[in-house]
Amino acid sequence: MPLVRTLLLLASILASGTAAFANEGGVSEKAESVFHVGPLPLTNSMLTSWGVTLILVFFIRWLVGKPQIVPARGQAVVEGLINGLRDLFEPIVGKKAMPAAFPLLICFFVFILLHNWSGLFPFVGTVGWKEMNQATGEQVGFIPWIRPLTSDLNGTIALALTSFVGWFVIVLRYAGPKALLFDLFGNKADKKEIPAALYWSLSVVFLGVGLIEVMSILIRPITLSVRLFGNIFGGENLLHNTSFIPIFYFLEILVGLVQSFVFTLLTSVYIGLICNHGDDHGEESEHSNPIEVKEAVPGAPSH
Amino acid sequence: MTGNIAQGIAIFASALGVGLIGYHAVEAVGRNPGASGKILVQSILALALAEGLGVLSLVLLH
Q1: What total of structural domains would you count in chain A?
Q2: What was the ipTM of the complex prediction?
């Protein structure tokens, strides 16, 4: 009980920080540049992403320390996270592509999770520079210093493109271009079961289906990036514009978790769609059905 | 008050989809609590796809 009380108190203090400067206009859609380095603008979301990434890297390094066979407490936390995620993703991605896909997936999960939650700290979007109109001296705008990476469309586009390129490389490596092309355009009908004329006319249909499939693959980076951006940006606006913070704050904690999970899960499903058929799939479905196996065993000697 | 009917329809339909998925996921867990892990993954995927369209319409039709 004291733990729950402490957590609630902490959360309400954090939540009250976000309410303190809630301004009327909401969060602007594009990330504002805070500094200029030569011709390059440094936007607030870039600065926040670098900060959070540095904290993430050093925190995990500090937690693990020097890896030991008998893990210390910090190492056990990280190993627990990795084991849980591996059990979740292995049936989706398939055993074959797992070694290459898993580092990508766990990076996406932890990175997006912490970047989503970085928008929930106090002072995010409320501390910054006032934009003054030089002639009249009135305030015309506001440039916050801190803005989470995932509430900037550029950041989520970068993440989605990384996911797309990773998908392409892993699929080419572990399924091969032939399997990829067959999966997209190939005729999946059984040649022995249907007449030849029907078979060849079906090939044309499968070609058309392949074209639609290619469109749906090319649209994936757009949907991935816009989904993540829309959710987190919408959440930021919600927190800034309503005075109903405590409930929406917990909602946003949940949304941050779910959206990072969704992004990772969709990436793994895209990989698994191409890489996860063939030999290891049947083996796996046998393992995942212990009841059937048990029933089969007593019957086996009588045959 | 200003608005966009396409956005309204998209949000309505995606909310309906999300609600249906949640309803059936809860029902499925009620019938077979042992499969809750698998159902969670499937339902979150379907939720993401249904809700993605709504968010897409909000951002792209803006």
Answers
A1: 1
A2: 0.78
